[in-house]
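Posting for a labmate who doesn't have an account.
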Amino acid sequence: MITRLMLAAMLAASMPVVDLSAQAPAGAPAGPVHRMPDGTPDLSGFFQADHGGANWGFEAHQETFTPGGRGVIIDPPEKKVPYLPWAAAEKVSRMRPERGYDDPTAHCFVGGVPRSLYVPAPFHIVQTADAVVFLHERMAWRLVSLDRREHLPDTLRLWQGDSIGRWEGDTLVVETTNMNGKTWLNEVGDVISHALTLVERFTAVSADRIDYQATLTDPQVFTRPWTIALPLVRQPGEMLEVACLEDNQDLQHLKDVRDEYRKNNK
């Protein structure tokens, strides 16, 4: 039987290896930070994360059947996800082949945040004076309001959460709440709940690079807040339309694996 990890290996093998440094615009070194008329950095453009394998695990890893990763956790110092016991057990369960069907992205739901920024796919940032918008290939988007101060009522829960941003010097600080608790953080099932508060920091360091940090605070899942960091690199070209639902053969396979497990473990 083809396991979920074996399937991931075949999919990874079929994807081209992306050297982000090689895709940076050719010519002179990156210029100064682009700026809006009010002096704040202009983050607009086409970017992709130098993701460090985060979509297959935040800690340093080198498995046989999934892409390896350098590890992107910068806090806590031991560079491990600080799970509560139940959440650690749930993460292990999600790595089993029969749980692949439970990942919402297998059903073409949005990846949520912060996952949408470190999946191996580019995205486009559009910035105005009062908002920053992230446009993703699977016809998904996230709006960050720059002119609101209060989040939506707690009774409203969204796949992408509710994001409010503010400028601290050259850093855009975005706080996201109102999660629905249904998203996975990556393909290996790292866990969050509806109680997550995500604080992201987008720091423009040149015309072609944004340093990204995300701190996750979720008292239902983690023993303490923890932080990841990775660069976002400007790309040539433009975003392509990707229609997940068209010819989605992975979902049936994942369902077959789940159903076979249930039949054999009644």
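Reply:
Got it, the structure tokens are right above this. Residues 4-25+34-239 form one domain.
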